[in-house]
Amino acid sequence: xxxxxxxxxxxxxxLSSLVLHGCASRPSSENNEPIxxxxxxxxxxxxxxxxxxxxxxxxxxxYYLTTIARPLSNHGYYVIPIEVTSQMLQxxxxxxxxxxxxxxxxxxxxxxxxDAVLFVKITxxxxxxxxxAANVRVSLEFELISTKSNEILWNYKDSVIVDTSGxxxxxxxxxxxxxxxxxxxxxxxIAMQVNNSALRSMPLGPYRMQELTEESVVNK
Length: 220
Known about the structure:
Layout: H1 2-13, H2 37-40, E1 45-48, E2 52-53, H3 60-64, H4 69-74, E3 78-79, H5 82-91, H6 97-101, H7 106-112, E4 116-130, E5 133-146, E6 152-163, H8 171-184, H9 187-199, H10 206-219
Parallel strand pairs: 1-3, 1-4, 2-4
Antiparallel strand pairs: 4-5, 5-6
């Protein structure tokens, strides 16, 4: 772990000398549509790092990390085991994704074999409460950065708001109902909704595309 931390530290020292690649001309498919940079770089393996938590909830990062691996895998990418990488990063003193952004991304290609690093910023993981009206909001910002070129391969931001108001009735029962509904609302399924919405804008990964190709061949 000392060696791992030393490598990361040395990466931060050379940050100032990092030369970012310019935007190369994008190849096109047969129908002249630009090929997504994800496909152009043949991105297969994604490293998910600890989220950048800008919300009011200190527990948001830990809860969120339980929601992202499966949908990414289902979308056709290999996700480096999050529990293992999170532990390694924590032992190196890295607990927030913003720290990783300060280090050349190629370090994570060398250490983990990742083609890209996924940064997630939690901007809201909060409850808005107004006596008889309340809602729970989860807002996320996604940024996938190449470990080859340091280019942004994909980004997206979205939020889901769940109304937890108490409904109709006398004032006291509405207040109680709103409080109970809000307290019992689980943030994790809401975060999963945001993930699913976001990934619809992300090009399918190679493993999912391979599955679809194999399915089409079988169905012919």
